[in-house]
Amino acid sequence: xxxxxxxxxxxxxxxxxxxxxxxxxxxxxxxxxxxxxxxxxxxxxxxxxxxxxxxxxxxxxxxxxxxxxxxxxxxxxxxxxxxxxxxxxxxxxxxxxxxxxxxxxxxxxxxxxxxxxxxxxxxxxxxxxxxxxxxxxxxxxxxxxxxxxxxxxxxxxxxxxxxxxxxxxxxxxxxxxxxxxxxxxxxxxxxxxxxxxxxxxxxxxxxxxxxxxxxxxxxxxxxxxxxxxxxxxxxxxxxxxxxxxxxxxxxxxxxxxxxxxxxxxxxxxxxxxxxxxx
Length: 278
What we know:
The protein is α/β, with parallel strands linked by helices. The mean pLDDT is 96. It has a single domain, classed as TIM Barrel (Alpha-Beta Barrel), CATH 3.20.20.140. The protein contains 10 helices and 8 strands. It has helices at residues 15-23, 43-62, 82-90, 93-96, 114-130, 143-157, 171-177, 196-206, 226-236, 241-256; strands at 3-5, 26-31, 67-72, 101-108, 134-137, 164-169, 183-187, 211-214. The protein is globular. Helix 1 links the parallel strand 1 (3-5) and strand 2. It has an 8-stranded parallel β-sheet with strand order 1-2-3-4-5-6-7-8.
């Protein structure tokens, strides 16, 4: 099965993992902007990171047969410094217009603070003005409260819901996210977030329309092959092929096709190491 990984942080992963992803059928991935482990102190640090994601990581991935796209945003964990946030938002246009940028994201909430809400709203409206897909990060802690705030803002602002992915849902937040016409993301981690079994149960309750599964794999304990394990589990658990395909391919294609830059290549051939390794 050919798989699209709709949310993964490959800058933190190794080349061996790209090789394994290719071997297991993951042919295309999208990397949203995220927190790198410590708060950045300068707007230029964000801009260098955006460029790294859009111009180097795409090349590194292609060497292993994976077509890599990026998304650009100020993440919610770094929304507390208003001056810095405003400077980053003012300089993002260059990167949002990049040929490898297919969404604005990930934006959202972390602790549901007023600063986070302000920056979230500004970026949500920026995406609407640019007619771009937007990837939203639900908080890991106060998730139900954060989901209510986010959905409330989406509804109040009247933004285009079928260009929005509300990610990191759990059993508690899905009923809130499902009030909208937004896409919903389910994130699978080895020791936190969801397991393949929980994904299976959620899909039985809420069905697979406008739902996609991701690994969101970063520098923590995570698994860039989580989607492969989900495919295997769902098949063994009696989910039909068309449901599995929706979760790991069709819905991601539909969502990111809202960007004219989304032109995934599924038949990239890995490059022999001898051709690029110094």
